[in-house]
Design brief:
With 38 residues, the protein is an all-alpha fold. The chain is 87% helix and 0% strand. The protein contains 1 helix and no strands.
Length: 38
């Protein structure tokens, strides 16, 4: 298993779930940031 193949596999998994991850990250990070004292 070479690096290019590995990257291709990881990319093919990550790209479809990217929008979902962004939504999930926003939902997780924003409440945390809003509760943090600046």
């Amino acid at each position: 298993m070479d690096d290019k193949m590995m990257i291709r596999i990881i990319a093919s998994i990550l790209i479809p779930i990217m929008p979902w991850l962004k939504i999930k990250a926003k939902a997780t990070i924003l409440p945390v940031l809003s509760t943090m004292p600046i």
